[in-house]
Structures are given as structure tokens and as C-alpha cells.
Amino acid sequence: MVFISVFVLTTLISAVALLHNHQHVTSQFHEQLKVDTLLQMGEEQFYTEQQEIIIACPEKTWKYDFPYGETTIHCENLTDGILTAIFTIQTDNGTLVNKLVKLQQNSN
């Protein structure tokens, strides 16, 4: 009887721990999707302001507010049509990511 009780208790504890781990991984995955989305949205918004970028780089920082958080882009260098910028992305849950991005200048 003791063996069965220990077995059932161990199984329940393991199941609860497994569920907790799955929820944590899902939450982290959701945050990563937000970061990727904010990066893409910031990059697209950045491209729509191409004329300003050419004139203002590297002295200017752009900040965009989106539904899942905000993206701040600081222009570091513009050389031979390649823009090097630091994207600082903060989600609405407080996740903060810095990413160095190289962007090709549009030829429109």
C-alpha cells in the first residue's frame, strides 16, 4: 500500500512539474515571437522613412510604439549603402533585447 501511494504521489508531482515547465517554455516562446515581430515592424517602419535616414544618420534615434511594445533604432553607421543600426526592443511584458542589424539601402 505504501508503495502504491508513493508511486501515485511521485507521478502527480512529476506531472505538475512537467506542466509548469511547458507553461514556462510557451511563455518564453511567445515573448520571442513578440521580439521578432517588433524587430520586423521597426525595420519596415524604418525603411518607409528612408530619406530621413540618409540625411540624419548617424546622429538620430527613432522610436516606434507598437501594440506589443516599442522599438528604438539608433543609427550607428552608413557606409556604401549599408546601414548599421542598433535595435533596442522592449515588449509589453518588459523583455529587453538589443540587436545589431545591417540594412541594405533601398534603390527606389
What's the topology here?
Blueprint: H1 2-48, H2 50-56, E1 61-66, E2 69-79, E3 82-91, E4 96-104
Antiparallel strand pairs: 1-2, 2-3, 3-4
Can you walk through the features of this model?
- 50% of the residues lie in helices and 33% in strands.
- It has helices at residues 2-48, 50-56; strands at residues 61-66, 69-79, 82-91, 96-104.
- It has a four-stranded antiparallel beta sheet, covered by helices on one side.
Largest sheet: 4 strands, antiparallel
Instruction: Give the N-to-C terminal Cα separation.
Output: 78 Å
Rg value = 22 Å
Strand content: 25-35%
Helices and strands, in N-to-C order? Answer: HHEEEE
Mean pLDDT: 87
Shape verdict:
rod-shaped
Q: What is the β-strand count?
A: 4
Q: Structural class of the secondary elements?
A: alpha+beta
User: Could you give the order of strands across the largest sheet?
Assistant: 1-2-3-4
Low-confidence parts:
none
